[in-house]
């Protein structure tokens, strides 16, 4: 795999994707309180060391010196119950999960159906990401995207940073409301300069696939780089900016074209291997949905046109599922991390902890050779199977209850090594027992927060349903010159059926005086707060609020 030295330092610093950030932010502290304090103070690999060796060093001498590894290496069995997949393998016989992930995601992808080809050309014309060779790009055929700061410096050289930021703030506000080309010359000129690149991007979103390879700085999933993720969010914002400009200029056809491209980009990005790409796809979709409501409430449209646009949203494919990402990416991340420790010792976990601690070689070898790492993987797979089952539960209420029971059980999983007797007993236990204990530590730390991931997916589904209703409400008002008193009036002419609030599995709350309306759901806090400011999932005829 590509070594990190092939990337410019600025690139690596900006884009390197360290899973430890996700683990520390998105995963809860699920160890018992004393162990959680140890984790905070000492780091993950020190905790693993203590799990095996929380006894005086004099006891280590009773292990008869430096332990010997079987035929010079730790054995990891390649099987469905341990590594899940059987290859490809590294030179030393371990599963190459990075290569396997790229093979998995690129299945069926060709240069003709891969929308990432155009994306990479306009966002990385100098091939700084190193994707050209993998994607079969020889020379860019699309112009490079002109970045905002470069544009500002070109039309107003040597502008103070405060001025540049002020212009950016003004530009950001424009992506949420209709505006005319004459309203903001800087933003308008920028869109004109990027017309060919944006038009190429819009066309590329019509392709079925979106494959950008995982390139790892250390041949592990932990060290995978995801440079295209952040850039995709920026391009989504620019598409919305141009859509709102076209809407303000009276070009609703062009505006809708850009909005649909934003929806398609969300789905393309979500096809990536990682949960991060799923979350970014969801974020882009949320932005597009918000702009959809602005569009339908601002454009001069006939009811038939609104109905056509509504169906185009409804008929879009779903965002790639979180359950699939947990089943593959998150599971493989766990297995790959386990392999790293088995191969290199606890120092391999520096990528997860952000710490660098050196251990005496004999202690490192002790940890590697005294644990049945196959048992760690088997245990991890059992827990991930349960995670996936919960994530695939269709009922949000049932899934929430299952997640709560799951989390309670997970909190009691970490081994109790708080006293010398317990630690000494563990030290001289079998490899299999040590494997189960180390597995408990890794599972407790690395297992994803299932409810948080699935809830993010549900929220964007909920937003989409309310946008569908909002489109039908606008069509009804145009036809009857007022909003309906009840949502049922929208059926069957405008909606086949009224979508239900995903979170309470009951109808949305709807109120109208004929000239305005209020539509909202309880949101992921599962409480009806009366659509007060800050409540999730609020749609009104003049303002669409969906708050976290």
Concise overview:
This protein is mainly alpha-helical. It has 24 helices and eight strands. It has helices at 9-15, 19-26, 33-42, 44-53, 57-60, 97-105, 116-123, 132-135, 148-155, 161-174, 185-193, 195-204, 227-248, 252-269, 275-298, 303-314, 322-344, 350-353, 361-369, 373-391, 396-411, 420-427, 431-446, 450-480, and strands spanning 215-216, 224-225, 500-501, 506-507, 509-512, 517-520, 538-540, 544-545.
The order of strands across the largest sheet is: 5-6-7-8
The radius of gyration computed from the alpha-carbon positions, rounded to a whole number of angstroms, is 27 Å
As a percent range, the share of strand residues is under 5%
DSSP helical segment count: 24
State the secondary-structure class. mainly alpha
Q: Return residue spans where pLDDT drops below 50 for at least 5 consecutive residues.
A: 1-46, 49-72, 533-537, 541-548
N-to-C CA distance:
39 Å
How helix-rich are the residues, as a percent range?
55-70%
